[in-house]
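User: Sequence in, structure out. Go.
Assistant: Echoing your sequence, followed by the structure tokens.
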Amino acid sequence: MGNDGGSIPDRRDLVRNKPKAEQADKANQTRARWLFCALSKKRLQEPVVSCALGKLYNKDAIIEYLLDKSAYGDGEKICGHIRSLKDVKTLTLTPNNASSSTDSKADSTDRPQFACPLTMKEMNGVQPFVYISTCGCVFSQAGLKTVASSSSPKEKASDSDEGGKSLSLCPQCAKKYSASEDVIVINSPPEEEETLRFALDRKRLLEPAKKKSKKRKNQSPEDGEEPPTKKQAAPVAVPSLNPSIAAASRAVVSGLAMEEAKRKAGMSDAVKSLYGDGTKRKETFMTMGTFTRYA
């Protein structure tokens, strides 16, 4: 076992451990979701839109996808639930002014372009952000909750719809919204995204089917005029025969009948039996279920 130029195998050479599965970098995933378009993978640029699931898109990318569904390879998987521009909402975003005052050596693509107008927190995925579906204003979730809780009870009681639901006012544009239905989380976790997708599918199933309405003229008939009736079919013109042609055709038919009678008169009884006398014969066991030409 030695001095022969060989080697002794070790346990590391004989036993192969299963390699660990590669894990994606969570920091890069978060950066891609908050700073880049989910469809075109380009940096977010206004106008920015969002769907009912809270994903962020460049509006020009959505328009290109709606015009040509094959423009992006994974477009059907990412935004197949978007049928038209009515399914997305244009967001009112606040530019991040603090990005220009940071270290100039840092990469500009790593700086968030937008921030919360209430707390001035950057929209980089560290803090959860929401948008209001009625107006499209974007806030940090903590900032919106703080403003909503600070409103007086009298304002909440006065702002209510016909159904009795309490409505709140948007702190940026003062439009009314429902805190339970109109606030959508941006880039929600996968578990919440599945719940939102299920709710979206259920909502679409409950939508009434659109029926094509036919335009009808509701014009009342004038006095003394009868209402219009259905058009009657025009009588079909029957072609009339020339009397001379009709007489000639009758003469030809009678002549053929006379020739047939003369031909049968000269036949024997055996030959006449082949053609039959016009009466239906009783079938026998030999002719039952068979086709005879002269029967």
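User: And one key feature?
Assistant: The mean pLDDT is 78.
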